[in-house]
Amino acid sequence: MRRSKTRAGRGRLLALAFLGAAMLVASATASALAAPIPTRLSYAQGEIVPIPASVPHEAGDMIDRRIVPDLRWIAQRYPIYITDGFSGTLPNGEHAGCRGCHVEHSDHLNGLAVDIVPLNGDSRCDGTWRAITRLAHWAEPVQNRPRPPFRWVGYDGDAGHGCGNHLHLSWSHAPAPPSELAQWVEVFPVTFQGVATQPGARSRSRPAEPPPPPGGISTVHSGGLSPRGDW
Ligand SMILES: [Zn+2]
Fold first, then answer.
1. How many angstroms separate the alpha carbon of residue 8 from the centre of ligand 1?
2. Distances from the Cα of 206 to the Cαs of 44, 78, 103, 112, 172, in angstroms?
3. Is residue 132 helix, strand or coil?
4. 153: which of 58, 140, 164, 213 fits an S-S bond (Cβ 3.0–4.6 Å)?
């Protein structure tokens, strides 16, 4: 009897050990998913350029070239299709991007935001959106707390965004008037192998950013109506 009790005890201990190990793995995976992405501030000269063919997009869409490497990296890992990038007036006076679709201080107006839907998807929230949902959670593991370099992520829980609608990603940047280039933009450096993985999230302290959306990000975007359109 004693032996079998001991065996049962050992069995319970083993089960607990397995459970503990499984929980450790799960929490390590979760923290890895939410770990900071190494980022840097790019002070390189910006320019609004056509989105390259390697990043599927609607004809004519443009973007600040400083976030092109990040977009390319994302497009290599997620089946994305960009429906809008820069929205504003080009130096030659022509208009690019969607007209009147974005709010007054939208990051689209500086070419530092993109609207994303699934490649080969449609407006139904079906399986084609699964990868877009994963991308949204990668950029914003916790609602209203986007991981740098992202300034704002619009998806499920944000009015006018989400599965079946679109995912908005914007990059943090120096304040800049509409249709003008920001002095700097925060990016994740992309190496040949992929994202640089060295620890030390940022190379320098962050200068001033544009103010958050009026009323605070959480009140404006967490399910409330946003009649002025997309960010
Ligand atoms: Zn947007």
1. 58
2. 16, 29, 25, 17, 10
3. helix
4. 140
pLDDT at 228 over 90: no
| DSSP annotation string for 160-217 | T-BTTTBEEEEE-B----TTS--S-EEE--EETTEE---S-SBSS-----PPPSTT-H
How large is the average pLDDT for residues 185-213? 63
Distance between Cα 6 and ligand 1 center (Å): 62
Q: 137 C-alpha vs ligand 1 centroid, how far in Å?
A: 16
Per this entry, what is the length of the chain?
231
Predicted confidence (pLDDT) per residue in 28-73, tens digit: 555 555 678 899 999 999 999 999 999 999 999 999 999 999 999 9
169 Cα to the center of ligand 1, angstroms:
7
Ligand 1 mean position to 207 CA, how many Å?
23
Distance from residue 10's CA to the centre of ligand 1 (Å): 57
Q: Count CB neighbours of 94 within 10 A.
A: 7
Kindly give the distance from the C-alpha atom of residue 114 to the centroid of ligand 1, in angstroms, as a whole number: 6
- Dist. CA 198 → ligand 1 center (Å): 30
Comparing C-alpha atoms, which of 129, 166, 153, 161 is closest to residue 213? 153
User: 118 pairs with which residues across the strands?
Assistant: 80
Ligand 1 centroid–CA 86 distance in Å is 10
B/e letters for 172-205, b = 16+ CB within 10 Å, e = fewer, are bbbebeebebbebbbbbbbeeeeeeeeeeeeeee
